[in-house]
Give the backbone structure.
Amino acid sequence: MTTTTSQISPSHNEMVLKYLRFAVMQRGQSIKYMKQSLQDFKESRLGGEDNYTAEEVCGLVDNISEMLASDVFKDLQLVSHASVVLLHQVFQQVEALGGSITINTSLLEDKMLLDQVHDLEKESEKTQQAASLTEAPQASLKQMSLPSLHNHKVAQSLELEMAQLKQRMQDLQRELTGVNREKTQLRSRLTESEERVASLFAFANTRTDTAEAEALKEIAGDMKPYEEE
């Protein structure tokens, strides 16, 4: 299959491969961050032995959807911004040479061209794997350097702070889950009480003895059905 880079010079072809490797790296990082976000959500919102009502499960699913939508939006936005930066570089270099170029955006959705880029990505991965196998696994002592002690301490401090913040977030999420569960239980009890009061009033209205009916209503008191604001 003829690739999309067959009509450009070898140096430009290498630049295309360089950008493709950059895009692959960005994609891998996005997937990694998304998996980590899901893992953090699972650890902070889901208890090992907790039982959840249908309403709570729906709330969890909605929260996950909002989180994933936000992450995907940011990733796609970053890709589009990176593409614009790349185009600016190309335009600036062409204009510096006194030339001009045009872009056919309809080709960006051409399946045949996209398949060719996919094949190019696979070929690039195979080339990188073969190159890594032929390289010597050992590095010379001159190429090796010890990390700065200051940087190591800063990294430890940041790691500790992140761990504390993560634990705090998990504690707050557990408290929120408990409050929601307690709210659901209280609402259920309130509904049950309302039904009993309504039954008592209905029973009192059926009594022919006025004194007895008034006594029953006095027992019910001023309780009225609960109305949410």
